[in-house]
Amino acid sequence: MRNIGMTVAYEGNAYCGFQAQPEDPTVQGCIEMVLKQLTGDTISILASGRTDAGVHAQGQVFNFLTESQIPVERWMIAMNSRLPKDIVITEVWEAPLDFHARYSAKRKTYRYSIYSERVPDLFTRRTELFHPRPLKIDAMKEAMSHFEGEHDFTSFASPKSTKTSNIRTIYQSWLEHEPSYTGHPDRGRIHLFITGNGFLYNMVRIIAGTILQVGQGKRSPDQIPEIIQARDRHKAGPTAVPCGLMLWKVEYDGSERL
Fold first, then answer.
1. CA–CA separation, 117 vs 171, rounded Å?
2. How many angstroms separate the CA atoms of 81 and 38, rounded?
3. Buried b (16+ CB within 10 A) or exposed e, 211-236
4. Alpha-carbon distance 134 to 253, whole Å?
5. What distance in Å separates the CA atoms of residue 8 and residue 21, rounded to the nearest whole number?
6. CA distances (Å), 138 to each of 49, 206, 214, 220, 238, in order?
7. Domain spans of the chain?
8. Within 13 Å and on the Cβ side, how many CA atoms surround 62?
9. Within 10 A of 97 (CB to CB), how many other CB atoms are there?
10. What DSSP line would sit under 136-159, residue for residue?
11. Is 163 helix (H, G, I), strand (E, B) or coil?
């Protein structure tokens, strides 16, 4: 028996999330269909986590057990030639039998992207939130820093979350700004990054919706600690649309590879 690890990138607009569903198109469903074509076996993959409908990934990780003897270096070409064009395997490796893409993960990073210009970018509009008005970028950057540390993130969790504890540790949260082609200091492309040991249902999108309100001048950066301490979903901002969210990277401790 072999344990194969893979990294996959996908644009999520056409899918009802990552996790397989009986009748709806999903990323997992497409991958498992191709694995069956290649191996002749019904294989269930184990992913580092789920992404919702319309959410994307650059660095989603999954693994699966197989008796197939396909060489590691052949998997990527074989799968990419059969997968839809919006799903791409970017890395393949042989993993120890006890490696689990979810339970072995140490850190995950998400990115939320906002395009603050007068007109949308035709070529990236499917992977970012379009915001036609300027934003207070320095205030947004200050607000992002308040999420770092161990906190109870109840204020930033969907009521649909089923986790027994809402305490999570955020290692880093920061903003990167690509200046506007117009030279306007409060326009351009804004990326919100957040790295933690785990995330609650809709947590990053609620954080993004709250930071967007800071950028709009509806909230001040120093309100973020108060919102966290309130442990009340009604105190935070709206859930930002899914198209701007991307699972950016999943990190392990190095023992995931033979």
1. 31
2. 11
3. bbbbbbeebebebbeebbeeeebebb
4. 41
5. 19
6. 32, 20, 10, 11, 21
7. 2-104, 107-249
8. 27
9. 9
10. -HHHHHHHHGGG-EEEE-GGGS-T
11. coil
Can you give the pLDDT of all 258 residues of the chain as single tens digits? Answer: 999 999 999 999 999 999 999 889 999 999 999 999 999 999 999 999 999 999 999 999 999 999 999 999 999 999 999 999 999 999 999 999 999 999 999 999 999 999 999 999 999 999 999 999 999 999 999 999 999 999 999 999 998 888 889 999 999 999 999 999 999 999 999 999 999 999 999 999 999 999 999 999 999 999 999 999 999 999 999 999 999 999 999 999 998 899
- CATH class for the domain made up of 107-249: alpha beta
The model's pTM: 0.95
CA distance 113 to 92: 27
Q: Which two tokens stand for residue 217?
A: 């001048």
Which residues partner with 115 through β-bridges?
A: 130, 189
Active-site amino acid positions? 52
Whether 107-249 and 2-104 are alike in CATH topology: the answer is: yes
Is the CATH number of domain 2-104 3.10.450.120?
A: no
Amino acid at 164: T
Q: Which of 196, 234, 191 is nearest to 211 (CA)?
A: 191
Tokens matching residue 9: 């990138």
**d(Cα 5, Cα 65) in Å, to the nearest integer?**
9
